[in-house]
Amino acid sequence: MKRCHLLLALFLLFPLRLVADEEEDALLRLTDDVAENEAHYQDCALVLSSTYWVADWVFAKADANDLVGSLRIISQISIIQKDQHFRSRDTGTSLTLGGVDISDNVDVFDGRIHQSFRKNTGIEIGTGHILRSESWGGMEEHSPVLTNLSRPHMLLLEMGAPNVPLSIYMQGAKAVLAYPNPGYFPKGKELRLSDLGSAEFQGLDCRRILIEVLSGNGRPSHRRDVWLAVDRNFIPVRKVAYTYRISKVIPGSESIVDEWQEIRPGVWFPVKAHTIAYDSDAIKRQGKQVPRWEKEYSVDSISLEPLTTAETFTKLDFPLGTEVERIE
After folding, report:
1. How many CB atoms neighbour CB 209 within 10 A?
2. pLDDT digits (tens, 9 = 90+) for 196-234
3. In angstroms, what CA-CA distances link 107 with 19, 78, 117, 231, 258?
4. CA–CA separation, 221 vs 212, rounded Å?
5. What residues does 104 pair with on adjacent strands?
């Protein structure tokens, strides 16, 4: 009798195992499709602008105790990458209640040596008085973090995700941590990926995936639903994010591609996108989405054939007097 019960249990479990294997195979094929399309963008020259601002009601509530919070940030980012080498520059102007902060960040990486330059200047509103001005440089044999803004498949996941290709992210925490300098991704966290099947968004056929972040005890704490646009090289066209301690049903933010450009036959690039983040207190206490801040992205130029010289990834001219730290 026990043998019969065992055989029956195995018989009932077999279809479940078969379904699980089929779902895993489908995710692997989807990950391969993403990786194959990511290869189109490995070499590129990109210039994009971003604008971040808080909602009017947040601005109105800000006071002298909120000096560190940025109320508006305007940035321009230029990136050249080729053969795993890159050069990037990020200039930004940030408005706070304490004044205006101007930043200039340059990174150059030749595949072995990372050179960097940072400059920050604080200006008092009204008088134009310089409150502070500091700059420094660095040079080390180290693989630096490359912003997700350089990866069209990660544009909508720029904030809150590790700085890795989407195909790496889809493979889970071990693949992320094995990637050269993925940025911040806490050890002990795990990723769980699910294929939610076919969907449609903005008239585009999509594959919808769910990415959950699991804490050390195995419980999910965050979730991102991502729509991969099949005919746009599997680049995400939409992402909604949830923080479970706030709400499992009301998204805390939403990111959408607003405009595409076909930069080569069959190769598309998201040239306009935006993210809206909602106030967590309003979600938790009122069950309402009240916009707290927004960020817009706009691509000024994009080329998959970057023009480079022998010095593009090797030379960084530090301004006279800059203290450069050399790390062995």
Report:
1. 23
2. 999 999 999 999 999 999 987 889 999 999 999 999 999
3. 47, 11, 7, 34, 29
4. 7
5. 91, 119
pLDDT for residue 8: 55
> In this structure, is the dihedral angle defined by the CA atoms of residues 44, 49, 54 and 56, taken in order, positive or negative?
negative
Tokens at 45, concatenated = 């020259």
pLDDT in tens, 108-166: 999 999 999 999 999 988 888 898 899 999 999 988 999 999 999 999 999 889 999 99
Decide: 295 and 51 in contact? Cβ < 8 Å.
yes
The CA distance from 62 to 56, in Å, is: 10
Residue 317's CB: how many other CB atoms inside 10 A? 9
Distance CA 135, CA 318 (A): 10
Query: How far apart (Å, rounded) are the C-alpha atoms in residues 316 and 109?
Result: 10
- Give 156's DSSP letter: G
User: Angle 23-28-31 (CA atoms, 0-180°, nearest 5)?
Assistant: 125
* Cα Dmax for the chain: 90
pLDDT at 148: 94
Give the residue from 199, 207, 209 showing the smallest Cα distance to 171.
Answer: 209
pTM for this entry: 0.89
CA torsion through residues 217, 218, 220, 226, sign: positive
| Class (C level, CATH) for 33-327 | mainly beta
Domain boundaries, the chain: 33-327
Residue 296 three-state SS: strand
At 99 the pLDDT is: 86
pLDDT digits (tens, 9 = 90+) for 267-285: 999 999 999 999 999 999 9
Q: Is 39 exposed, middle or buried (0-12, 13-18, 19+ CB in 10 A)?
A: exposed
- Asked if residues 189 and 215 have their Cβ atoms less than 8 Å apart, the reply is yes
Q: How far apart are CA 67 and CA 193, in angstroms?
A: 39
